[in-house]
From TrEMBL, chain A:
Record InterPro entries: MetI-like, MetI-like_sf, UgpAE/MalFG_permease
Signal peptide positions on this chain: none
Residue ranges occupied by any ABC transmembrane type-1 domain in the UniProt entry: 71-283
Membrane topology (UniProt): Multi-pass membrane protein
GO biological process terms held by the UniProt record: transmembrane transport
GO cellular component, one term: plasma membrane
Family: Belongs to the binding-protein-dependent transport system permease family.
CDD domains tied to this protein: TM_PBP2
Protein's name in the database: sn-glycerol-3-phosphate transport system permease protein UgpA
Keyword Ubl conjugation: no
The keyword Transmembrane appears for this protein: yes
Compartments in which it is found: Cell inner membrane; Cell membrane
Keywords recorded for this protein, A-Z: Cell inner membrane, Cell membrane, Membrane, Transmembrane, Transmembrane helix, Transport
Amino acid sequence: MDARPAFPTRWFPLLLATPQMLIVFLFFLWPAVKAIAWSFYLVRPFGNGSRFVGLDNYLRILTDDSFYASLRATLVFTAGSTLLAVTIALALAACLELDVRAKRLLRSIFIWPYAVAGVVVGIVLKVLINPVTGLLAFLNQLWPGVWAPHLIGAQAMLALIAAFAWTQVPLNFILFSAALQRIPADLMGAAAIDGAGPWRRFIDIQLPMIAPALLLAGVINVIEAFTHGFGLVDALTQGGPGRSTAILAYQIYSDGFIGLDLSGSSALSVVLMLFIVALTLLQLRFFRQGAGRW
Amino acid sequence: MISLILGLLLLLAIPRAPAASFEFWSSHAGAMAQAVRQLCAGFNAAQQQHQVRCVVPGTYEQTMQKTIATYRAAQQPALVEIYDVGTLDMMLSGAIVPVHQLMADHGYRVDWQDYLPAIRGYYTDAQGQFDSLPFNVSTAVLYLNTDQLRQAGISTLPSTWRELEQTARQLRAAGQTCPLVSDFNPWILLEQVSTIEGAPIADHDNGHQGLAAHYLFDQGLHLRFMQQLQRWHQQHLLVEAAATRTGRHTLAFTTGECAMLFDSTSAWHAIARSGLPHVAVRPLPIHADGQRHNSVPGGASLWVMKGFDRQVYAAVAAFIAYLQQPQNQRLLARQTGYLPVTRQVAAQIMDDPDHYPAAVVAGIHSLDAASQPGVGPRLGFFPQLRLAWTEQVQMALSGQQDMAQALSKARQRGDALLQRFRLTYAGPDPAPSP
């Protein structure tokens, strides 16, 4: 049987796809090509000239301490927020699978935070972490100076991780909830009759069966943290104190748009792009392997 | 009847005169935005020939980004307000018509010599000609809550750093938890303080003599000053804005949480509106053994962009002449706390100080009253140097390194930035853009 849809000519489907392809080209491919080109030049902001410097921009980045500081911040931020977001979402989803009252209501409440923009979360959190009036200000009354996220990088990073995880939990929750509901009730019932408690059932049945969803959520969270942590950092810490929260996405913005260093910023974004391509390839590999097993 | 309506519609559709209209971008909210709107409306009402459309594209930084983007797309505004640190980029952009040339071409005789020397020193090119029109000029001053000072038994206001420290100590002893607040902004602590003391932060005349400059701020006056500031911070005489209730330095002062504040003269409006009954404003202190130099003009200036026809430029020139009129400079000063730009208007204000904001009077003192000239820094990739300085100073304040190390690291990063800026703009005939 011929599974292909019937089109009058070969070019017709291409014509239908043109607007979409044009948009992809204009807003995704062209800027990426431009960034790669600029990363080999020293570019004047107003475009009245530029100078080819080959790999100099990359060499400079790779020998610069502040790049490694950014990289470290990015990795800590990504790993921390992904781990936290996956764990919390998993706990919430698993608990809702137990017989809970108001299951539907809770489910929609857990999804809400997804609608809140990163910048808004940042502004709210800025109030919450204030060392004089915020949630943890009582610590300073007990031990003066112990809670100072504006001076202590690790505390600023913790706040950032908590905030970003908060925005990621809803999507993970939906994924995990859906995966858990796909598990046949017979299986769970049989295990219960055999005397397996909720925890045993979770470890031996539910967790292995939703492994693909866990992996998918993990990969999505990692890529989100790499690319979309920017709004939150801008609103909450501006990369400070002392560059401790200057994740790569924020550094690219700050170099390119505030510092007007288009070439350095381009080289940095190409590096970030390579990271993300590598991550995506890794994800594809995992899924292909996984498809056979699960 | 129908023909009458059609006739009226036709009349409306025909432009009334060959009027040139142009767009002017400025980047303000609040009192300054209101003053700009008033100036634009005043210009449009004053004559029939020209029209200005005043647009607010965003913050200073966003306006710079959008100016670059629109220029590259040939959609730029004719006149745009760019912040002080963008000055060198604009001068080297090849995208502007120098304002002195524009005014001369259109037959306006402007007395450029009447501009305050500190402003001339900052905004003119190597030939001493104005490339842009200084518009909203501010400078850093010290705000004091005199009620709180009086309660602590202080009657004389500090004018040296030592007196300021003494005042802060007395306030602290009298139970004030936040004697002095600062957001540790390099614009004030690095640029203004150094210039007022006559200590350049970079060689080659703070960058005015070409692109080959190197930074000097990791030694001498600035290092000593920052070490002293760090001691004040440790002793809780100086509180970081982020460690106050509101997290913002101006608000920390207006809410009465802090008794003294370093801020721009343009913060005056927010402070006056807050209802604090007794606020005094003074120029930033100096060291007792130093001599006071002119401070640096901050704020922004107006740049005329390339790419328009003569009619549009005639309108722009008329608008610039309008903005320079003494009554319009005075309007800006009175409503916003920004400073006048010409000596004539500065003198008028100093003759009648009670009718102007105290911040404007202190600002003119700081920018002009000194007999010594002072030249503010005009250096490449300067916004990034400010970030590097802030990063390193934050790490010093949190005790991860000492202040000397912090400033030395910031200087190294700054020198690398200057070198790259030099390379970016070096060469008589660079390759075309990719």
